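User: Predict the complex with fructose -6-phosphate.
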Amino acid sequence: MCGIIGIAGTTETSERLIDGLKRLEYRGYDSAGIAVLQEGELQRRRAQGKIRNLESVVRDEPCDGPLGIAHTRWATHGKPSTSNAHPHAFGGVAIVHNGIIENFRELREELAQKGHNFESETDSEVIAHVIAYYLGKGLAMKEAFREAVNRLRGAYAVAAISKDNPDQLYGARRGSPLVIGRTETESFLGSDAIALAEWTRRVIYLEEDDWCMVTPTEVEIYTMDGKRVERPEQVSNATPGFADKGEYRHFMEKEIYEQPDAVGRTLSNYIDPVERRFHSANLDGWKSTSRLLGSACGTAFYAAATSKYWFERYARLPVEVDIASEFRYRSPVLLDSDRAFFVSQSGETADTLAALRYCKASNVPTVAVVNVPESSIDRDADTTLFTYAGTEIGVASTKAFTAQLTALACVAAGAAQARDELSANEIGDLIDGLLEAPRMLNEALEKVSDVEEIARSLSKASDVLYLGRGQFYPLAMEGALKLKEISYIHAEGYAAGELKHGPIALIEEGTPVVVIAPYDELFEKTISNVQEVAARGAEVILITDRKGAKLAVDDASAIIEIPECHPVIQPIVAAVPIQQLAYYTAVLKGTDVDQPRNLAKSVTVE
Ligand code: F6R
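Assistant: Here is the predicted structure with fructose -6-phosphate placed in the model:
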């Protein structure tokens, strides 16, 4: 979602601001812009579309100066266009904003009556007007900024500069992250530490309802009521050189191939492979838990939904999983012995964060399964169980998903051990199975040519169904989501047994139906469903293992074979062909695979 960069520097900033925006590109955006203070005047350059468009605008009409802000916009209020792109400016103030200002209409009307003219359809523009209004009343920038942010309702991260304060960069945070970066001679603001990593690893995370004024050499942080506060400086682990596709065509392809590593790294943080035992943190708190509540969005939700099968099967723990945006508004009944978990790659998803805060407010212990350290969800949760996928750039989640599955499988198995639900032998068997995941993923990745061939026929389809039973049902939904988001082909995932209760009416001659059914105790039942759709003309693409392939050879139009493996890692391994099918279909369709239309990597608005 929107990305923010600010520099209070000693040398020119335009090029660096644009470089910083490139490091935020992975979040998804539809327009970009910069504003710098050049010889006492604010200069703004903005462009719809990719950052290269902004670069060519700046090339045609150069601007530069040591104080500047920059933004990638993901449209919420007002269509993607140059006039809606940030920075917005009014009365010698320029701002960039991530989030939603809920009371923008009210503020806009109030200021329009006072003679302010608005030039965009955005909610954000009003911020520049409110600051300018207070400056016009004679307040200094520091007071004007504080008054202004106190008038805003909603979720935001904001950065602002004004033409009369040539070395001051302002920032505020409510609901969306904002990080200060420091060197001896310059200060920065960024939506995340990655954006700043090229310039500094010394970071200070603003807390909820903090605002700040930074100059090249000073940092002042305040609460909304004006109290000066200190926040700890940390050394971030973010690396600047991540934005490299190496030998791959797209980040998504690279990330698909990084899965054996991502899963291996995650496993080694949960399991001691030499002792064949779980690290102790994995075993805490499970005895006193009588119910587990999971919330997440999108792909992370499908990881949580898969783990329900593991927690129930292995740890005999009742689990409810919800889409985070539904959870807190359905007035869930929370019990004293509940434990809640929240799965998120970015750690910034607004709905997941809100669900976490809802549980915290009811004193339910909260566990985050998160990929980005120091993200809001990591910081707010009582306990964080990290995934170690590394930075994921492709908007469509791949390695973060399998790393989430891996962490959750380890946690479920650890819970089974802590609750004495499985014998030592059974636990040992699960651990052995889990430790095989990186090797099995490598083997699955080798089947790429089979997948590419099938993607050719999929790319001509207008509707695709995905079916799965048991632990493969969430993966069927994930498969449909992957295909939709990057190839723009309509797809739906269903529980295989549910098909005959309605969706089977969609099957026509040639409708592709992707069935995920590695051999297990439910295999025969799923194959009955395969026969039902094949009898009605469906082209069945079956993802199964050798045993399944032998049994179903006459029922499917095409088979993608994954290696035979322990049941607990079957969904992790079967995720590979699911992702590859979507990827190669999208490549054939020529879509923007890494930054599909309308999507953002980190969804920081509700
Ligand atoms: C789909 C995808 C999204 C995210 C969802 C949650 O490929 O990536 O559905 O899974 O927006 O994001 P996080 O995991 O950052 O909370």
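The chain has three domains: 3-247, 250-435, 443-606.
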